[in-house]
Amino acid sequence: MTRSAIERYCATHGGDRATAEAEIRSLLENLIATGTHQRVEGGVWRLLAREGFSLLLSPDAARVLGYGTAHRDRTYGQVKAGVPSRSRSRRRTDKGWVLALQDDLPVRFTTLVLRRFARDVLGTEFTRSTGKKVVEAAYSRSTHVQPDPPSNHAGRRRATDEAGLRWHFAYEPGERPAVIHLSWEPGCGPQDAAQEGGS
User: Fold this and answer.
1) What is the pLDDT of residues 11-69, one digit of tens each?
2) CA 199 from centre of chain
3) Cα 157 from chain centroid?
4) Which of 4, 12, 196, 199 is 20 to 30 A away from residue 151, measured at CA?
5) Are 107 and 179 in contact, with CB atoms under 8 Å apart?
């Protein structure tokens, strides 16, 4: 069991390391017996549960490298036990359409990144009607700065484009890279432009 898998579980669900390890072991046992098994980049194994949980295993299947879930508010045990979600259904629907806009892309963007890109770069709001245009523009611009992934395909990288927009990429084995944050270099961005125009 790797530290990154345990830390991901704790960051998602809370709790201590011992609980996280026990829950991941239980999930692993279930996925070995009933899950879908896929080989992905670098020979890594991805085990998937139809309930929306996944584990990444090393190529020799000896170590759990990563943990993922669509259920931030429930563990695998809680989902199997029928504990209802505490998330509002509207949030889940919104997340679904945002993810659907990115299905065919080799990189994905969080909703917060897309909102900020729409506001700061395109001067619009990120909505269902503007979503496709915003995602296409963010993807086009991100391709000019996407850094090389870490050697083990896990970790974070940061790159700044010619306008001073800083792109924060996160990498996990077997997953698409994700842009998880946008920030501006000092002296760049819409707020600085407004200040210059007002002086």
Assistant:
1) 888 888 999 999 999 999 999 998 889 888 788 998 988 888 889 999 999 999 989 88
2) 40
3) 14
4) 12
5) yes
Write down the pLDDT at residue 151. 74
Q: Are 66 and 52 in contact (CB under 8 A)?
A: no
Res 73: pLDDT: 77
> Which pLDDT does position 148 carry in this prediction?
85
CA–CA separation, 114 vs 137, rounded Å? 10
Pair 57, 64: CB distance under 8 Å: yes
**Cα angle value 68/73/77 (rounded, 5°):** 70
Q: Would strands 53-57 and 108-109 be described as parallel, antiparallel, or unpaired?
A: unpaired
Rounded CA separation 87/118 (Å)? 25
pLDDT value for 161: 94
Neighbour tally for 175: CB within 10 Å: 19
